[in-house]
Amino acid sequence: MNTRRTILRNLSAAAAAIVAAGVLPGCSRSQTGDGIPKLRLAASIYVGWMPWMLAAQSGLLAAQSKQRGLDISLLRGDYAETIDQYLSGHADAIVITNIDALGAFAESKIASDVILIGSFSAGNDALLVPAGQTGLAQDGEVGLVKNSVSEYVLDRYLETQQRALSTLKLTDVSDADMASTFVAAGNALAGVVTWNPIVAAIEANAGGKRLFDSKALPGEIADSLVVRRSVLEAYPEFAQALLGTWFRVMQQMQGADKADALEKLAALSGSSVAEYQAQLDSTDLMSDKSKALAAMGNANLPKVMERVGNFVESRGLAKTDRPNWVSFGANTAGTLRFNPAPLQRLVTA
User: Fold this and answer.
1) Which domains does the chain have, with CATH numbers?
2) 87, 125, 132, 144 - which has most CB atoms within 10 Å?
3) Which residue would you say has higher pLDDT here, 11 or 70?
4) For the chain, what is the total number of helices (H) and then of strands (E)?
5) What is the DSSP annotation of 203-248?
6) Mean per-residue pLDDT of the chain
7) pLDDT tens per residue across span 279-295
């Protein structure tokens, strides 16, 4: 099951306590017997993040790490677990959505740098209703994972309809139960908001149809590679190893070995090749270095993050001073900083 998105308030008690106390581990890392720094990337199963799983399985991550004088390992877990690992300092980097990153890091005050937007959701997130239904009734009940990207998508849909959130009733439904809840006997839900592959399953097997999806939100749901700033400053080659790994996998996915790469990616995600390809078709994957660098400097990005900030603030996910939440450029100091410098270095190397 795809577990990319989850409720930020569902962080483990241990991680929540660390955040509340303001006690965060420093950037000192363990070393191998040869004195090589050991660093960790946390990742969960999602179409746009499976390249990291393939990189670890194939040895690409190890090769890039060795080339940069580092020992980088991949920590796999569900999405909530990976956020816990990052917040507690057990992971030095994480793949996470821009929305969840802002909510989690603004509240924890963990200085973090986005060094790559690996993909954008371009249809993977959707509002579904029963066939024959043309909208959401007043006071209709909508099932979703609350305080998540799905709720952000619903907010954006309601904006297009000039409706307030108060005109609906929200029911918290886990991703694992979403499809079965949609088809349950006596189901009172007017619709659900979820993500692939659940969207595809509901469309194919439960008679659901899309009322709205992330195709209408270009550039807003960004699946990002984030590194703890203290670690990035101590080990700048960490970013180069991660970025180098990403684009090597992108080459595999587009070159002569494409079929083999897709087969392995599908197997790692628990999907068939056709299912994984369908998810890729709804993903704007940053496979080209120049395109990725342009995405980091897109003039629309600050506007997107302003909108995301409004969402995070409206849900009470972060209560710290908002002007310091996010910044853009290598020399800025926002808690969540979009830093293109490591990618620029890779592009010009």
Assistant:
1) 8-122+221-348 (3.40.190.10), 125-216 (3.40.190.10)
2) 125
3) 70
4) 15, 13
5) HHHS-EEEEEEGGGSTTTSEEEEEEEHHHHHH-HHHHHHHHHHHHH
6) 88
7) 999 999 999 999 999 99
